[in-house]
Amino acid sequence: MRHQSFDTGKNTPFFRPPKYTGITLSLLSIFVLVSMLAVWEKMAQTPKLPNLQILAWNPAELPLERVRKIYQKEARCILTVQYQSQSQILQSIESSKLPLISNWDVIISPNSKDIHELLSVEDWSSRGVIAYRKEKLGASSKIDESNQSTELIAFVKKSSDENALGYSFIRYLQAPTKGQVEFGLDGWTGVDKDHWEQSPRLKIYAIQESQPWMNRVAQDFAKREGLELDLSFLEKNDLETSIRLLSQANNKDYLPDLVSLPAEANPPEWISDFYLKFEQTPLDTLPKSVIYMRKKSPLLKTCQRFLNYLSKTK
Questions:
Q1: Three-class SS string for the chain?
Q2: Which residue among 159, 185, 211 closes a domain?
């Protein structure tokens, strides 16, 4: 079999390799290197978003999913939610014990004796009611006032690395213009809580004499609630002068939310214009002092919880 000879001088090759000069190769290398550096810089600037692991009751899935999508954008985080029935939640907690339960930062469940027994107060912080679910009764069902609604409550794991985010998310769910709107759309009954703040700051002015017990109690409460604390201890005259000056400002939010003053038969006349006296103060807990709560504090419900916490602290 004859093969036709190939003459490089007469026949044009099917593929002609490109000719690169030294300058062309150098420019190409620089282009590739700059492109890689740009990609690496972009990857380095991408923050790692915190991830909150949530175990939730499945009847609350619709409002929770709507809130989850909104909150993720506002708080720049990731919320991973697993939905289960009430019995499954109890079984999951009881069967998993320490290994798996540590993966959950927040648990949202119907209120029951069993859930409180399974979640110890040393490990979990109860955040109260998020909403009330109205039970759908048939026409022939007997109406029982005590069984018409179910409390949806929340717990945050104290030792979680994302517990601050957990506290913030629960406050978002309880806020009247945030999560409560979404629950209301699905027929849930809302709760009366403070308006939403990303990092609420509780401001307290107290007399120097109250520092030994007030500092400890206030710090414990702030950690428990996941909020910022602005705590100032002043002499009585300096404290009263400061509040009088702050009360003259156009923005009354400069006033402290709570004020601790000496227990006197005749309190300052000006204080009744802005503050309410907390009558339930136990004498053994608050020696020689009285707590006043600002009437129009933006953290009114938080103040009430603090005073309730204070009354139970020995």
A1: CCCCCCCCCCCCCCCCCCCCCHHHHHHHHHHHHHHHHHHHHHHHHCCCCCEEEEEEEHHHHHHHHHHHHHHHHHHCCEEEEEEECHHHHHHHHHHHHHHHHCCCCEEEEECCHHHHHHCCCCCEEEEEEEEEEECCCCCCCCCCHHHCEEEEEEEEECCCCCHHHHHHHHHHHHCCCCHHHHHHHCCCECCCCCCCCCCCEEEEEEEHHHHHHHHHHHHHHHHHHCCEEEEEEECHHHHHHHHHHHHCCCCHHHCCCEEEEECCCCCCHHHHHCEEECCCCCCCCCCCEEEEEECCCCCHHHHHHHHHHHHHCC
A2: 185
